[in-house]
Write a structure and sequence with these properties.
alpha+beta, 4-stranded antiparallel sheet, binds alpha-D-galactopyranose
Length: about 400
Amino acid sequence: MNRQELKTKFSEVFGPDSTPRMFCAPARVNLIGEHTDYNGGHVFPCALSFNTYVAAAKRADDKIRLYSLNFEKIGLVETDLAHLAFDKKQDWANYPLGVFWAMQQRGIALHGADLLFWGDVPLGAGLSSSASIELAAAVTLNTLFALGLPQTELAKIGQEAENKFVGMNCGIMDQFASAMGKKNHAILLDCNTLKYEYAPLDLKGVSILICNTNKPHNLIESKYNERRSQSEHALQQLQSRLPIKALGELSEEEFEKNQALITDPVERKRAKHAVYENQRTLKAEQALKAGDLEQFGRFMNASHVSLRDDYEVTGAELDAMAEAAWKQPGVLGARMTGGGFGGCVVALVKNEHIEAFKQNVAREYEAKTGYKPDFYIACAEDGARELND
Ligand code: GLA
């Protein structure tokens, strides 16, 4: 759908009186550093060319009207600034409503607005369609009402909407990547301090290929929250001897020396993943900087193994996809990306092998799981922004 079509739809849904402004916010793929964000570690995502688009106009009253062309059966969602509340029936609209709410919580004065959404982000695929909806709403309100909030603040507002309004206890990675993405760059983010740096994705004949298992990652919320509390409990036990605030502060050696403090063997594995994955992410970024893509790929493979064996968030489909990918010629590395339990694998593949990769992996994956996969080449793009004609 192009911008003109979105504007036309806007008039159809909300009436012809106002001329909407256009915004977008991207999905993300995480290259390495999984389940480290809420453990105070590092992540290494990039924003994608899949986006949520918004056509929006402010209103003179306090009404909020939301409509999504991806969820037409939900219809128009209408409320006002004084009555913002989560409601399961509002479905997707809880994300933008959560953004209005999180802004209000910060004492920001808002007015009503009409927002029309449309996105090309694969839904439920672990590429953060929800964060892209939140950031699309956040950048829209920030611009329409001239709030002057920095992009990092919009990321925090998106996370707060998701944590406290929607009730999904995610970390900051997805919202940060959607807010702060930069064309042709990945973002190394320290989730403990929110310090970040951009790393050029100079891949010399290699592409980032996203392999969608098409296994919806349902149940992710309960399992995600369980992993979070297991890691937090392991941290508490380590804190009986170590002056740390997060697992991300530990080196592998410090973890090995102190791991016996964690009494539950499952929680010990969870903490081990968080510590090793964080260190692996730092080393992987160094490898990328040094132009050593082979080494980066080996770190990706090790990340998948750790997520499979120690954090136990992969599942049959993600494992089948990664294993099929690992066998292919021209593959430097492959791992699950996002929260897990379904969703996508991300692979580094030499360009001349991509076509054969897709065919072979699709055949093997489908034979093993019964799902037909999809493949997308990832292009690192800019973060949430207004689109000017
Ligand atoms: C989901 C969450 C993120 C992060 C990843 C796992 O995508 O939204 O905050 O925890 O899972 O790395």
